[in-house]
Here is the input.
Amino acid sequence: MNVNDFNFISSLLLEKSGLALGPDKKYLLESRLTPVAREFEMAGVDELVKMIQRTRDKKMIDKVTEAMTTNESFFFRDVRPFETFREKVLPALLESRRERKSFRIWCAAASSGQEAYSLAMILKEESAKLAGWRYEIVGTDISNKILQKARSGKYTQFEAQRGLPVAMLSKYFEADGDSWTIRPEIRSMVQYREFNLLNNPAALGRFDVVFCRNVLIYFDAETKSKVLEGVANLMPDDGVLFLGGAETVLGISKRYKPYGDRSGVYTIANSPPVSQFTPINTTRRESWQSTQT
Here is the structure.
């Protein structure tokens, strides 16, 4: 792929998805777009790029965008954000929303669904506390193909075991040949919608908790700021935002402040101070980690 073709595709991806690719990602473009070229019965990526330049074919552009924005995910990724949600955020929601008895969670860039289903399993585990409550988990992604996989709830042996406690695998999944499928009662707890984070998210409604993890790292500063602004507009003053371990709002958005003492977790800047986290029950945490494969 020559420099002009790379610049064309990288500019197209920035426009369509916010994905910012540096020159060092040329190999990534070629490896991910080669299967797309084959799908359209072309000799290679160069021919694919030339066809898009000439025709601006929407189907081809969508396939290219989908190929480049499909990122990996796994259950209970990094563990600590899910501990924070279960140990701190959920109890706070149950207290602050006790009158209306409802809350909503958004998993932005949900990929193949592991993050949203991890949250669903936590809520299922806490079902006794949630009796009489209404809650929603909404997972969105730019890729319709990856959302189809998420809706199916079907994962390979490797995907199912990666990060997932053994007890939850046996409790919430059914063996399906050499794969595992999430039980219907967990799948039904999550709604999936196609959505581009570059668009105005207002149509998605209000959310009390937003997981937008491991996606901002692919955006430039301007796009990060736009996405964070849109998310803040959807949240109440005590809403909670979870970012990935390598992501921050510092120097990007003034709409947020740290939530307690956990890195990567934020609340709206004009909300009341959040008390420091009480120590996590180490026995419970060790039990959680010891069940992972």
User: Anything to note?
Assistant: The chain has two domains: 3-69, 80-283. The domain at 3-69 is CATH 1.10.155.10 (Chemotaxis Receptor Methyltransferase Cher; domain 1). The longest strand covers residues 134-141. The CA atoms of residues 78 and 245 lie 8 Å apart.
